[in-house]
Write a structure and sequence with these properties.
- The protein folds into 3 domains: about 45 residues, no CATH class; about 140 residues, Sandwich (Immunoglobulin-like), CATH 2.60.40.1610; about 180 residues, Jelly Rolls (Sandwich).
- The strands form 5 sheets. A 6-stranded mixed sheet has the order 9-8-12-6-5-14, with helices on both faces. Strands 15-16-22-18-19 form a 5-stranded antiparallel sheet. Strands 1-2-3-4 form a 4-stranded antiparallel sheet, with no helix packed on it.
- It is an alpha+beta fold.
- Helix 2 crosses helix 7.
- This is Lipoprotein.
Length: about 500
């Protein structure tokens, strides 16, 4: 037997012909044992009756890979549709997410600072003007593949001093007065515009938000006031849908977007599955089966790729279980010889948005994110168990730090009876004499330490992000080290 076939899990079993041995080797029948089951062969070719099975496997593999590829695009498309259908947002409106309830729909939202977010379809507006007021903000503009187009605020060109930005659709030329703006060229027609207010004073934050303006460049002489909306308690979800709904959302958004050169092979896979730009969504029964199976397997692989990262650089400290969750080398997701497909899939399954500030390596600027999916023994974090996290004194954050708990299934803030998902240096936590802090997670609060506790939900797994805002040198040189999450009796 060919040793390469044996190494790949293949074997050949001869089948007796009616005369014992075929006189014509090309017509000899045998069976090839493959990872998808036995394949009847006629000589070196698959038997005719095996061809449908092979095509079904091809369709399943295409659907699985297309699912993983499309995660960032479907996430934004879902989020945009939920804002529109459930929260009443129109093109260019801003949604203000402040409370725990407001943020329950955002994948891995931070629970500490307000979000101000809006989706804009440049098909409708043309070039877009953004007027950011001066003040402590962090945000930016991203395209619908969740590539950062430009940062705004402290990590943007305005450096917190405010300014005017001009977002250009794909192929648009800068106007004559382009020098009056910070220019941002989008590769997609739909964009997300968002920022966070970092000032801890709610009144100052509100005043800053109310100064923000966003309008079509064509209306610059007399722009309409930007509408500010709130979810007002309405339930919504930005988590990518499952099953056929995933593909329906993908089909809908690709109708409105140009095809990037890097994605043409994936578009070919989708076309063979009944999803094509300019054509209705009408997969055959066989295609539908492949799509449903591909979405199921794709999400399983996404979970492994996210919650058990195998990227060499993911584990931040070699003797700790904390991951550097954002492993995209730069916001464009592009390295010299390839684009980061699997790093991108991992981040955009568990999170949304990406800016330069989120991957900043400059002490005192931006944010950093550490993720814990297991306890110190490597076991998944169980909502029915009690855990403790020891945070050593002097966490390396110029602004503040926070520890936030998420539901592993939805990747959104944990939806618990306590109605709380985070602990942070902006809260009144009980400290140890040396300045360290012990945080607790479990179904019940430790006696006398309720202020240091987040309630978890039995029957559900959870994971957590430890965020450092404006991380200092001790984080980058790793002289400060965070303990693992430890199960307690």
């Amino acid at each position: 037997m060919n040793p390469l076939l044996r190494a790949a899990g293949f074997s050949v079993v001869a089948l007796a012909t009616s005369c014992g041995v075929s006189a014509n080797p090309s017509s000899a029948t045998h069976t090839l044992q493959t990872p998808i089951g036995p394949i009847p062969m006629q000589g070196e070719l698959p038997a005719k009756e095996a061809v449908p099975q092979l095509f079904a496997e091809l369709d399943f593999q295409q659907a699985t890979q297309a699912y993983l590829w499309a995660l960032p695009l479907v996430a934004y498309a879902q989020w945009q549709k939920e804002f529109s259908d459930k929260l009443g947002a129109r093109n260019g409106d801003l949604m203000v997410l402040e409370s725990y309830e407001d943020k329950l729909g955002v994948i891995t939202a931070n629970a500490t600072t307000p979000y101000i977010l809006g989706f804009v379809d440049l098909n409708q507006t043309g070039p877009l003007v953004i007027e950011l007021p001066p003040g402590p903000t962090a945000g930016g503009v991203g395209d619908f593949w969740q590539r950062a187009i430009i940062d705004m605020g402290q990590t943007g060109p305005d450096q917190g001093k405010g300014g005017k930005y001009l977002v250009l659709p794909p192929g648009a030329k800068p106007p004559a007065d382009a020098g009056n703006y910070y220019l941002a060229n989008s590769e997609t027609m739909n964009v997300l515009v968002g920022f966070r207010v970092l000032d801890p004073d709610p009144a100052k934050g509100k005043a800053l938000v109310e100064q923000f303006k966003m309008y079509p460049y064509a209306d610059r002489a007399a722009p309409a006031k930007t509408r500010l909306l709130s979810p007002e308690g309405k339930a919504w979800s930005g988590t990518q849908p499952r099953g056929m709904a995933y593909w329906q959302r993908l089909h809908a958004i690709i109708q409105h977007e140009p095809v990037n050169e890097r994605d043409r092979f994936y578009m070919a896979m989708l076309a063979s599955l009944g999803i094509e730009k300019g054509k209705p969504f009408a997969p055959t029964e066989q295609q539908r089966k492949a799509l449903e199976q591909g979405a199921e397997m794709g999400e399983l692989i996404a979970k492994a790729n996210t919650f058990a990262k195998r990227f060499p650089q993911a584990q931040y400290w070699p003797d700790r279980r904390w991951d550097a969750v954002l492993n995209i080398a730069e916001p464009s997701q592009r390295l010299p010889n390839y684009d980061q497909l699997w790093e991108r899939s991992a981040w955009f399954y568990e999170a949304v948005t990406n800016t330069k500030g989120m991957v900043s390596k400059t002490p005192g600027l931006g944010q950093t994110y550490l993720g814990a999916y297991t306890d110190n023994h490597g076991d998944w974090l169980d909502g029915g168990q009690q855990y403790r996290l020891h945070v050593p004194a002097n966490p390396p954050a110029k602004q503040f730090w926070s520890m936030t708990v998420y539901d592993s299934d939805t990747r959104t803030l944990i939806d618990n009876p306590q109605r709380k998902a985070d602990l942070s240096s902006r809260q009144q936590l009980k400290q140890n004499p040396d300045g360290s802090v012990d945080l607790y997670f479990g179904p019940t609060a430790p006696a006398g330490l309720e202020s240091n506790w987040v309630q978890t939900v039995p029957g559900k797994h959870w994971f957590s992000y430890f965020r450092l805002y404006a991380p200092t040198e001790a984080y980058f040189d790793k002289s400060w080290k965070l303990d693992d999450i430890t199960r307690v009796p």
